[in-house]
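Feature request disguised as a bug: please show the residue count (245) next to Elongator complex protein 6 in the output. Example input:
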Amino acid sequence: MSDIITSCLQLQKNISTNRIVVKEINGCDGSFIVNCVISYCIKQNSPLLIVSSHNSITHYHNVGLRMNHNLFKSCEAGVIDYFDFGDATLTNIMEYAESDQLLIDVLKKIEEMQRNHDTVNIIFDGITHLLDLQYTLQEVNKFCSEIIEIAAKSKNPFVIFHCNDVMEDDANHCLANLLSHKAQTVVEVENLSSGLSSDVSGHLTIKYPGNKFNEEHIHTVDMKPKKYLYKLFDRGVKLLAPGTV
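Example output, currently without the count:
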């Protein structure tokens, strides 16, 4: 069931540094997309670095068991690596280290994996939490650009930034927009405006701003987004066309 998500994200295509932004609109939980991508990387034996300020590795592992994969085994095999940004922040505070050191450590982690693998994919889960840790909007935006620049040294990797998007005058909204301008694919996850439903979990909108540079779309003036309803299950997600439920 997770294959439909990875197909929408175009992970199977040989795109040079496929940049993907997942936006959680007004507090909607879009972590299922991250879990689907982790599952894809494990099945494909594709090296992945998970940088998270949002969920623990135990959380990803427990979700993965329901999706029939074992994250800990993949970590032991060196295919998946995990950087706990929250735990590293606490250590940083206790040692009175410079806050910039954490950002440098993440970039070093990427380069370390690249020495062992031709391709290193990256997920940053909860990038907007860096604003809560008193990093400025400029610092976070520059950090994301540096991640993309270093990722490009690999062979056709993907980079996913998972962020929150709330009020228009909020710094989170500004960061989400800045990242969207860097992205080839933008995924927006939103709750149902009508409230909770037993048949549908929410709305999923997928935009492909990067496609406007492709030869097949160069004469297309208005790129139409793909809109779905989605239903979450323990083992994945199902996409539905609007109006079918």
